[in-house]
Amino acid sequence: MIEAAVRAVRARTTLVPDVAIILGTGLGGVADEMVVEARIPYGDIPGFPLSTVESHAGHLLVGTLAGRRVLAMQGRVHLYEGYTSQAIGFPVRVLAQLGARTLVVSNACGGMHPLWSPGDLMLIADHINLLGTNPLVGPNDDRLGPRFPDMSEPYDAELRTLAHSVGLAIGVPLREGVYVAVTGPNLETRAEYRMLRALGADVVGMSTVPEVITAVYLGMRVLGISIITDQCLPDALAPASLEQILAVAREAEPRLTALVRGVVERLN
Fold it and tell me: What number does CATH give the domain 2-266?
């Protein structure tokens, strides 16, 4: 399946990427800053899952950003849409086979740290997988990665240092913390927020972890960035709507786009 998907992409472009980017919530502006050579619908790539979420467009963008060769996934899929974690991780396998050795992922999340606010950007330093599944379950192909990959540093420390440096240079403050992934699609209860915070998580979301596990398995370097879109403090919890969450993400988007552009420009 990977080979068939690579052939389909190679029929449209010969570009070998320096970096791959998953344009989750808040990174739509990166697509506008790219010099796009090809826009390939996911439906034209064998094995690529199709997003059912309105804010996820479903195209693979091929081109350059800040002078670097880039493959950008414009939209992702989630477990709550009915996909398996293996299906969610499949596009990352294709991106790696096309030559990408660095992966940048973004997401929107709920903030459980009491001193952080909606609109803040957080570098993911680590994650907790509470999805109840793993994209590496099933037969392993030793040509692609090890049966038991190490996860002591899923988010590359050098990339986080670079992101902090870029953020300082362009005036974008960055938090750093732990992301916990849950299945959704409902938001969490007060008791669940208390539990997740007690487990050591700073933010909670419904994506990212399957793609990151797959990327680390394949030997890729990963930078993860979250936009905190709502405060999830159990003793002061207010109802949150999708419209409010997307509005906060849109407000933060220019800062996240500038940060990712700066990181891509300075990549070794």
Answer: 3.40.50.1580
